Amino acid sequence: MATWVITGGNRGIGKEFINQLLLKNHTVITGVRNPEQMDENHEFLHVIKLDVSDSKSVIEFAHSVSQHTSQVDVLVNNAGRMDGRWQSIDEVDADVSLEVLNVNTIGPLRVAQALWPLLEKTTDSKVANITSLMGSIDDCLSGKSYAYRTSKTGLNMITKILSVEGKDIDISVSCYHPGWVMTDMGGERAPVQPHESVTGLIRLIEMQTLEQSGRFFEYTGVELPW
Ligand SMILES: NC(=O)c1ccc[n+]([C@@H]2O[C@H](COP(=O)([O-])OP(=O)(O)OC[C@H]3O[C@@H](n4cnc5c(N)ncnc54)[C@H](OP(=O)(O)O)[C@@H]3O)[C@@H](O)[C@H]2O)c1
After folding, report:
1. Contact 30, 42 (CB under 8 A)
2. pLDDT tens digit string along 114-129?
3. pTM of the model
4. What is the residue with the minimal CA distance to atom 19 of ligand 1?
C-alpha cells in the first residue's frame, strides 16, 4: 500500500480523498490548519498542522511527515481558496489577490519543495496538483475572478516546470480539474458530488506515469487546454 499526502483534508474534496484512500488501505498523511478540529480517527491516518501560505509551517510539516514515513508515494496539493468570486476590474482587491496567489500557487510549490526529498526516495512517485478549469487561458470566456484564475494558471505552469525537473528522478507531476463540485467552495448548485469527482481523480492519479507527466486533465480523464 502507498503513502499519500493530502493538503487541506479537513473538508470538501480533501476530506473525500482521505475517506476513499483509507478504504483502499493506503496510509494517508494530511496537512490541515486546525488539526484539533479533525474528528476522523483511523490507524492509517496522520493529521499534521499545515498552513501552505507560511514557509515555516510547511518546513515543520515536512519534518513531521518524515517522522511518520521514510518515503512519500503521492502528494496531492489540494488546499486552496477563492477570491470573492466574479470580481471585475473595479472590485479587485490587490492585497487579497496576493493572499490567493500565496495559497493557491506558491503553497503547492512550497509543499512540493519541502517533500521533494521524500518523493525522491521511491520510484514512480507522483505529485497531483488540484487546479481548476478557471485557470485555463483558452477557456477564459466569462472573464472576472482575476486572482483565482491567475493563481490556478500559475499552478499549471508550476506543474509543467516541476514535471520537467522530476523527469530524470522518476517523479511525475500533473494537474487536475476536479469539476464543479458541491463543497463549501463549489456551493449548493454544483452538479458534481465530491465522491464522483474524487473517484475519478484517484483513478487518474493512480494511472499517472512519467510518460504523461506535465499534463492537465479533468476528473473524467478528458485532457484540458492550457
Ligand atoms: N469545488 C469546486 O467546484 C472546485 C472547482 C475547481 C477547483 N477546485 C479546487 O479544489 C481544491 C479543493 O477545493 P474544495 O472545493 O474542497 O474547497 P473547500 O471546501 O473550500 O476546502 C478548501 C480546503 O483548503 C484548505 N485551505 C485553505 N487555505 C489553506 C491554507 N492556507 N493552508 C492549508 N489549508 C488551506 C481549507 O482549510 P480550512 O478549513 O482551514 O479553511 C480546506 O480544507 C481547491 O484547490 C480548489 O481550488 C474546486
Report:
1. no
2. 999 999 999 999 999 9
3. 0.98
4. 12
Closest CA to 27 of 14, 18, 39: 18
- Residue 48's SS3 state is strand
Q: Which of 185, 188, 193, 205 to mutate to test the pocket of ligand 1 (most atoms within 8 A of CB)?
A: 185
| Alpha carbon nearest to ligand 1 atom 11, residue | 78
Residue 27 phi/psi, 5° resolution? -90, 135
Cβ contact 63:84 at 8 Å: no
C-alpha cell at 186: 463549489
Q: What whole-number distance in Å separates Cα of residue 9 and Cα of residue 79?
A: 8
Q: Torsion-angle region of residue 72: left (phi > 0), alpha (psi -120 to 50) or beta?
A: beta
What fold characterizes domain 3-218? Answer: Rossmann fold (3.40.50)
